[in-house]
Every structure is written in C-alpha cells, then in structure tokens.
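Hi P.,

Sorry for the delay on this. The queue was packed all week, but I finally got your sequence through. Input first:
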Amino acid sequence: MAAPNPTAACADGEADAALAQAAGDRRAREDLRLFRAWVDQGDRRARAQLIERFLPLARSLARRYERGAEPLEDLVQVASVALVKAIDRYDPARGYAFSSFAVPTIAGELKRHFRDQTWMVRPPRGIQEVTLRVEGALARLTQQLDRSPTTRELADAVGVDDEAILEAMQARSARGALSLHAPQGDPADAMSLQDTLGAVDPDIERAETRAELDRLMTEVSPRAREMLRMRFEEDMTQAEIGAAIGISQMQVSRILRQTIAKLREVAGAGAQPDEPTLV
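Then the structure:
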C-alpha cells in the first residue's frame, strides 16, 4: 500500500484555498455591484437580493443571542429588520466590507430588544445591561466549567462586584411571568395557578351591607320594619300593604317615607340612642 504523498496533499489544500478565495472575491464583487445599484440607482430588486444574500448572517447572529424563554423566531425577526436597516444605511464608498458594518448594527438591535422588550417588570437600565452581560457569561461559563459558575466567577467574567451579580440575578426573575393557566403540581390534577389564587367574594360585601342594615333597623318600630319587608322583599304595592295591616294607602305612604328618611339620617350621622323610634 502506497504511503500518502505530503506534497500532493499540500497542493490539494492550496488549490481548495485558492478556489475559496476566488469564490469570496466573486461574492464581494457581486455584493458591491448590488450595493451600487441600490445606493446609486435606487434599484429595489438589487435591495431585495442583498436582503436575501445576507439573511443567513442575520439568522446566525439571532441564534448567537438565543437564551431563556425568548423565541428564536422573534430574535430572527429583530435581526432581519436590523439587517434591512443596515443595508439602507451602508455606504460602499467608505471602502469597508458590509459585514463589518452589519454585524454591530444587528447585534445592537438584538441587545436593545432584550433591554426594552423582554422585561415583564422593567428595572433600571444599568441593571438591565448588567443582567444581559451576566446571562451571556452564565451560559459561557456553564459550558466551559461543566457546572454552574459561582458568584465570584461571574463577577470576574463580567467585571463587576459580587453585589452587582446578586442584584442582576434577582432582576432576572422580572424577565418573564408565569401564566395563570400554568399547571401546578401533578398535571393529572388539572389544577392551574389561577385555581390557587383568591378572588373577590361578593358575599363579603353583602354581609357588610346586611350587618349595617340590621343596625339601622333597630332605629325603627317593628311595624315599620314589617312594612319595609313587605314593600322591598315581597314587592307588594302600598295598597296591598295597607290591606294586610289594616291602614289606608296614604298612611302606608307616609310611614314608608318617614322610615326611609330616618334610615338615611341614621346611616349618615350615626344612630342616636335617645331618639324615639318611629311607630
């Protein structure tokens, strides 16, 4: 069996590098031609081709910032919009590669998205920025150390003190919120977080109203209380109340009017024990 020829392998490697360089040069010339067509002539088809050619760059940067519960689709959308802004702002006459301009532009938009749009409760901007740096360092150190990093290790990586790290870790809890419909405990129990929360009980207000009404009723006579019950609980007319009690409708109207006025007075000023009750 013949031994591998190092010279031939080296030649193949150089040939591959030359082909890659040639392909890169062709790509750069085509990019420049499209940018010239867009910037100088306003050719929107050239702009659309540029967006399509550099979308993989936007997706790659979006995946780099993928973390936590933020959907990758949202990050790709933010990065894509930033790519369009970069294409519109790029000036090929300056002589530097478009990627050198696009990468910081897209990264800046992604960072701004995390800073401004992903907080359920927004802490001060300084804490937000430290928190984002801590999250990046946390993911990186966890992969490097094969364990969760300590507070000191995070502080050294981010360049802040331990207290700032603890504050940032606490602020991370404001990045999201639990759904009220999230299952609690055993999913078979079908109990959600909403089921564990208290709610306003309308009977409490009715109980308070009933207690106040019972206190007010001590200020009127038993006959007046009965007439009020017949009028407002049984919905009887004044004529029906008069017939049941044995008085005229006019007397019923007068007693009800005086009783209601008395109740309003007592409710507004407080009961006066020495006042005579209504007959």
